[in-house]
Amino acid sequence: PPPPPPPLLCYRRQRQMCIRDRPVDCLLKSKNVLLLTDAIHYLLNDLGLKVSRSPDQSVIDRLIRTSDTSQVTFGLKVLSDVGELGENWDGWDELSDFDTGKGGEKRLLLIGSNSIPDEGDGKPQFSDFSANNQSLLSSKNIVAMTTLTFYKIYLLCQKKSVDPKAILNLIHRHPGGVFRLEQYMKSASQAA
Q: Under a CB-based contact definition with an 8 Å cutoff, are residues 24 and 11 in contact?
């Protein structure tokens, strides 16, 4: 029999299959930052947004713009787990260079995986950012959401024809903390 493929080749194949065939599964179940980043990139592109790698800031996983002429650039940082954040998290100093937190042309968006490993009952379970981390995000004027919230936004845009630019506009104006889709739904129903 032929020798097994090198581990990197296996990983690349797994990554390509996950993103191409099951980006939503990958988004909702994976704790691997590379797979999550690729799944989010794929789904954002599917919504018609401009997504690219950050050429000059390696700490930012992706840059997101609503169009080529957009004034606002979102810096996306993907976390393997919502519990990863904390006062002493290594990324704060590096990320502070990107986010102005004052409604400027740059806005940082953290998306953290919140899946909990399946305990055998087949029902997916999800966690949330802790109260301490929510306060920490608010104090730093940084917006975050869970992968489940991102998935709900994706569904809303795909199935209900909600313009993703409208949601990104809300995220841009968000004071900091955890973005909840319910906030968008409430403001949209009040505007109607």
A: no
Q: Which helix (H) or strand (E) holds 146?
A: strand 143-146
Look-up: residue for tokens 């608010």?
138
DSSP 84: G
DSSP-derived 3-state class of residue 50: strand
Return d(Cα 51, Cα 63) in angstroms, integer: 6
Residues 177 and 36: their CA atoms lie apart, in Å, by 21
Bridging pattern class, strands 115-116 and 125-126: antiparallel
Element (H, E) at 187: helix 181-191
- Give me 139's structure tokens: 């104090």
Contact predicate 33/21, CB 8 Å: no
* Total Cβ atoms within 10 A of residue 116: 11
Signed CA dihedral, 126, 73, 19, 24: sign only: positive
* 57-81 pLDDT, tens digit each: 788 999 999 888 888 899 999 999 9
Task: State how far the Cα of 113 lies from the Cα of 29, in Å rounded to an integer.
Answer: 8
Residue 182 has pLDDT above 90, yes or no: no
